[in-house]
Amino acid sequence: MARPTDNNVPVATRVDGHPVPAALRGWVLPLALLLIWWAAVQFKWIDSPLLVSPQAVWQRAVDYTASGELRVALGASLWRDLVGFAIGAGGGLVFGLLLGLSRPAERALGPSFHTLKQISLFAWIPLISVWFGLGDAAKVAFLSLAAFFPVVLNTYEGIRSVPRELVEVARVLGFTRWQLLWRVVLPGATPSIFAGIHLALIYAWLATLGAEYLLVSGQGIGNTMIDGREHFKMDLVLFGVVVVGLVGFALNWIATRIERRLLAWRGQSVARFQ
Predict the structure, then answer these.
(1) pTM to 2 decimals?
(2) Rounded to whole angstroms, how far apart are CA atoms 52 and 235?
(3) Tens of pLDDT along the chain (274 residues)?
């Protein structure tokens, strides 16, 4: 069972009667998988060149990092990811606000948007490659689409989910339209908007790897994995998988911390009335 601290936040659990710090709980599964992987290679449970040892992957990581290739590949992928995310999330926020705040815009643009969102993201690849080629412009356009749709949907739903009672009370108090927007509608929709931005960041990173696989021109961590596959360097492929996972974890961790910090007022405002 979890052992709470004074502020009721669990910091440790017990495994076989021994306390496990909360910070280490998330490492249980990765370490178990690493141990199974090492044992499968060491004791030849799976005798195949497709499964290399953890030591070989570690050595590849050291060599790749020391040569500067990791910095170049990862830098290219992150640059595309952040530019595409910024364009897609920014455009999605504006469009979502337009749909949520304007009934005429929702009637005119809503049906088309809800039709387009049903199209698989990867179905846009042929059209994007024709319009933008196979370089960075095409990849950024693809990532922008990946980030656009979740932000639009969550912004729209957040605005539409603001309780009508709050709006009516604001009108009774004589709020202007701008005061109603900034003091009632946007604060009420903010949690949903941040959830959409958080999803957009994750989707953009996943789309980065998809774009580098399908639009193979240029450098990137996805291209590194493709090179490893084509030259049958499984240690390079597995190293790429680990890097992708770690970067995705880091992006999610950063987004979660920022979201909690910016939305901390929700808990404070509720506590004032308890």
Answers:
(1) 0.78
(2) 6
(3) 445 444 554 445 554 555 656 666 667 777 778 788 778 777 777 766 677 878 888 888 898 888 888 899 889 899 999 999 999 999 999 999 999 888 888 898 888 888 888 888 888 888 888 888 878 888 899 999 999 999 999 999 988 888 888 777 877 777 777 877 888 888 888 888 999 999 999 999 988 888 888 776 678 888 888 888 888 888 888 888 889 989 998 998 898 888 888 877 665 443 343 3
